[in-house]
Amino acid sequence: MLGGLIVLFFHFIAAPFAVVHALLFKRDHRAALGWISVSILFPIAGPLLYFFFGVNRIHHSAREVTGWKSTLPYFGYERGEVFLPQEPPPKIDNHPLAHVGWRTTVTPLTGGNNVTFLENGDAFYPRLIEAIKSAQARVWISSYIFSGSGVGMEIASALAEAVKRGVDTRVLVDGVGAWYSLHSLRRRLQDTGVRYVEFLPLRLLPPSLHINLRNHRKIAVIDTGYAFFGGLNIDDRHFVAAPRIDNPHKDVHFELYGPAAISLAEVFARDWYAATREVLTVTGKGEEQGNVRARVIEDGPDEGLDRLAMTLMGVVGGARRRIRIMTPYFLPHRELIGALQGAAVRGVMVEVLLPQRSNLRYVDWATRHSLWELLQWGVRVGLKPPPFAHSKIFMVDDDYVLAGSANLDPRSLRLNFEVGVELFDATLAATVSDYLDKAWKDAQILRLEDLDQRSIPVRLRDGFFWLFSAYL
């Protein structure tokens, strides 16, 4: 009897806190109602479950990692700080879709960029090695995975030679991504003088076990005004024309000369500070060398929260003729699904090209569960057969491309540190569109009846993994 009274006493203290917190800070009314019900109906256990599993600490943790100082209280972590521009966009942002990125980043487009489309590691790695060999001032590389064998060794050798020439040479690898390679380059790079750092490495002492908050960016900055960005890690799996492994991954990267390279250098500098607390100075402006207008969108669970997601929503709403999407993992949030449906019923041609089979089967299953929502409103969905289509491309109309490291799933858009680059240029967009046309040629066109014909066990499996979409 006494024990029951004690439980009820503590429950009537803990439950109101949980209820108030859910009311104030949950972003989804269904989640808030569910957690409030659990907190009230289950003495002590309900509030404890909410505290451990219902409280999203990602945003606050990300702030601590990156060193941002917030004016919001600790428990305001589910809301990022938004700084909307108070003045109209610069004249260079006169494209109908350019206003979106201006509002989400408060960063104007930079003109005068020369951007080259690089298909797979066959095109990218030789250009990167050549760039490292010609570098005179700095080589800064950020990669989720940096393999210690094959092309990774070739790039390491070029970096070692750059150090001998007095080049400021730094490599930043994600702490979880580093475990993908059985042959770590850490010792080899450090022995040759390359500054090698891992972003939030996993360790027991002192404890650091962040499975989330991963740095998924793929950036290489060479000297001033020269950079690479895209979806390729440094790994042999991205050789496709002359494959080095049995299951190659098709992907794309971009080579950029011009002022936007400075923005990519600044992204690297902030990541380096987050990992080391060392401040890097980014100097120079980058000479104008082309006609591409570009804007770098730095996205992450810190103050960059929702920048990419809001940009995607905005440009989908502004599409006039077509939207072309290619992504390896497709678990978009409800708002983006609604925006794509809305575009389709407005008469915009909407295409989504996915791999027939990715390297994460449970993501494929979760994706299949919800594709009917797009198919029934006329969105065209294709499944690309092997090799694994790992490319991340978002095109709108005939002169807008958004490319970078982010997939269209909650992990990329809510939990990872990602980078996207808006590119405004009809000629470049035509090249990217040709790449998509070729990818569609052998794709299986998915029909609504294909999903309807799945057996009950398959539907249950797909639905089960769909429940965990936010964590996949």
Automatic annotation (TrEMBL):
Coiled-coil features, chain-numbered ranges: none
GO CC, alphabetical: plasma membrane
Protein name: Phospholipase D/Transphosphatidylase
SMART domains cross-referenced by the UniProt entry: PLDc
Keywords, alphabetical: Cell membrane, Membrane, Transmembrane, Transmembrane helix
Annotated compartments: Cell membrane
Parts of the chain that traverse the membrane: 6-25, 32-53
Source species of the chain: Nitrosococcus halophilus (strain Nc4)
Keyword match Cell membrane: yes
Lipid bilayer topology: Multi-pass membrane protein
One GO BP annotation of this record: cardiolipin biosynthetic process
